[in-house]
Backbone:
């Protein structure tokens, strides 16, 4: 197994991409802290991991609350003694334009989607540095952070910030043997904050199918395993090739 005896934290792990990442890391031997705001969702995922023969525990936390983050980190260390992997996946979206979003809506999205990954990475990185054995951090971005779009102004800004947060973290944490990378999905699984996934929804990309959470989970597994030991500060696009296409091209 690629992650035997390693301890991983996955935020927003109660459904969709985060759930699949948690289960995939556990299947490769990691002990997984399933972090979600929804207690029932987190406990369900942790129970399914345990039933499948893995090791996991659910933690309830608001990804934007510094005290919640500190409690998760302390709880994980108390339970398993260390932290080796962090996946910053939790996010919320606004689906608003600059003309109709309120400051409160803007602040909420930035707090969870950008400030949350910063705070969680800060707390976890400090623990990794204290351990002296390095670690791996993966931030979940979005194609919305690289291109303009007709809605979700705060989400787009936040995910753009996540991309450069990832690069800056990679530079600053490399001396401590902490590798930081990011993954960039496009329309994978259900929309942000939603449970429903429609596999028949039309998509335009080079792969000719909608992305599914397992696509992301496999990419994350690669980035936290020794298979990617020479990759740092990278934003890996897991988007079916849509970002390579000319705007308006329907040939795929």
Residues:
């Amino acid at each position: 197994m690629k992650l035997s005896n390693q301890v991983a934290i996955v935020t927003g792990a109660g459904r969709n991409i985060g759930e699949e990442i948690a289960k995939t890391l556990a299947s490769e031997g990691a002990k997984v802290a399933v972090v979600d705001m929804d207690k029932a969702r987190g406990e369900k995922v942790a129970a399914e991991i345990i039933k499948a023969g893995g090791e996991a525990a659910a933690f309830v936390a608001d990804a934007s609350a510094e005290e919640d983050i500190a409690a998760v980190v302390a709880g994980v260390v108390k339970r398993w003694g260390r932290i080796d992997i962090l996946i910053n996946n939790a996010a919320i979206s606004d689906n608003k334009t600059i003309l109709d979003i309120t400051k409160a809506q803007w602040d909420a999205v930035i707090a969870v989607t950008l400030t949350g990954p910063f705070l969680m990475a800060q707390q976890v990185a400090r623990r990794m540095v204290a351990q002296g054995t390095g670690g791996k951090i993966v931030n979940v971005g979005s194609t919305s952070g690289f291109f303009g779009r007709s809605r979700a102004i705060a989400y787009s800004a936040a995910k753009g910030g996540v991309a450069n947060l990832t690069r800056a973290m990679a530079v600053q944490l490399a001396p401590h043997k902490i590798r930081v990378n990011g993954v960039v999905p496009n329309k994978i699984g259900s929309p942000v904050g939603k449970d429903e996934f429609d596999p028949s929804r039309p998509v335009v990309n080079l792969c000719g199918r909608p992305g599914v959470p397992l696509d992301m989970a496999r990419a994350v597994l690669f980035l936290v395993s020794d298979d990617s030991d020479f990759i740092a500060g990278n934003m890996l696009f897991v988007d079916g090739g849509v970002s390579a296409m000319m705007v308006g091209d329907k040939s795929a």
Notes: The chain has a mean pLDDT of 94. The longest helix spans residues 103-131.
